[in-house]
Amino acid sequence: MDKQFEELINTHKGIIYKVTKLYAYTHDKQQDLFQEIVVQLWRAYPRFRGQAKFSTWIYRIALNTAISALRKEKRDMISFMPDLSHLDRIEVNENGEKEQEISILYAAIRQLNQIDTAVVMLYLDDKGYDEMEEILGIGQGNLRVRLSRIKEKLRQLTKNHLYGT
Amino acid sequence: MELDDLKESWKKDKQGSDFNVNIMELIKRESDGPISILKKTFKKKFKILAIVSCALAVKNITLWNNDMLMWLFIGYCGIIGGYYYSRYSLLEDMHTLDMTVSGNIKKQVITLEKGVAFHLAIMQIMPVVFAVALEILMYNNKEPFFSDWHKQSFYLRIVCYIGFFVMFFFVKRYAIGRNFSSHVKYLKTLSGQLD
After folding, report:
1. What is the tens place of the pLDDT at every residue in B116-155?
2. Burial letters for A56-80: b for 16+ Cβ neighbours within 10 Å, e otherwise?
3. How far apart are CA B47 and CA A67, in angstroms?
4. Which domains does chain A have, with CATH numbers?
5. How many CB pairs under 8 A join A and B?
């Protein structure tokens, strides 16, 4: 069981990493959250019977852990800029503004509440509304409206930051 | 830049696949989430209570000749043990995270509120049971252990019991609030975000 669990987690660790990226603000906190999520996955693994896809199961536990465990502190958008050193250097150098825009948008996403952050994460991962519903337990109609509001809010937040309004 | 524009950058993020961690080492570590911390605190208190109860029993070993006292002590251990078992079960129930996000939040709010209400109710009943048991014990045996207290007037004893009930109620309410209230408040905030 240990080996099987290890293989499954290694295959899907990108999901866990991405959750930590949006719910934890520093590298140390991301590592702590990563560890916490893996521990919770291990606790829940004996109960997994394949009722849902493995990735859906991981998303649920990872998001539940991140949302329950961390109080999201309200931060000024300037106070943290995500580490984008992993981005392709050629792309960044061709358009230096793009890196800044990405940073601002990430900072805006971190201003959202915990549930909206989860919706954004699943949207960025190209999950359809049916899959989002399976993970979040929120109806598809509600998700569509929510996503539309989130996009508008992010526009406002990024605009406020750029133009200082 | 719009959210849709971020998708490309999000997908290109390779740090996830390069994230080198030893999964088998990680699972050996202890969880430090809020429920795990509550469970650890709870286990510590239970151990202290068990040690104190055993120390009292050993210190007053001569009193074990008295059947009624012995059975009362066993009853007390049974009630306390049952109470702590139900609290631990509540925390275990809250610790299952494989439901949908909204289902998990709603379940935790309901479980915690019901659990807190139940425990407050028990905390109100227990001092009354204790006082009644003490009075019955004093009238049914002549151990010197109780003679000083038995000498006091009945009305004075009643006043002391009432004072004890009131103090006990507020102390336990404060303790339960301290352990659970911030988490309940946070869960209710999350629950509000679902609407």
Report:
1. 888 888 888 888 888 888 887 777 765 566 667 777 888 8
2. bbbbbbbbbbbbbbbebeeeebeee
3. 31
4. 1-80 (1.10.1740.10), 82-165 (1.10.10.10)
5. 142
d(CA B108, CA A39) in angstroms, rounded, equals 19
Q: What is the DSSP letter of A72?
A: P
- The answer to whether B192 contacts chain A (CB < 8 Å) is no
Contact A137 B99 (CB under 8 A): yes
User: What is this structure's pTM?
Assistant: 0.78
Regions of chain A short of the pLDDT cut 50: 72-93
Q: Does B101 touch chain A (CB under 8 A)?
A: yes
Q: Which residues contact B31 (CB under 8 A, 6 or more apart)?
A: A36, A39, A40, A43
- pLDDT value at residue A77: 41
Which chain B residues touch A33 with a CB distance below 8 Å?
none
A-chain residues near B111 (CB < 8 A):
none
Residue B182 pLDDT greater than 70, yes or no: yes
**DSSP secondary structure letter of residue A95:** T
* Tokens of residue A118, six digits: 């989860």
**Hey, is the C-beta of B61 within 8 angstroms of any chain A C-beta?**
no
Chain A hits for B11, Cβ within 8 Å: 124, 126
Minimal C-alpha gap between B66 and chain A (Å): 47
A-chain residue closest to B33, CA distance: A69
Q: Quick one: what percent of chain B has pLDDT higher than 70? A: 87
Q: What is the ipTM of this complex?
A: 0.82
What pLDDT was estimated at residue A80? 46
Q: Mind listing the pLDDT tens digit for each residue in B42-71?
A: 788 888 888 887 887 777 666 666 667 777
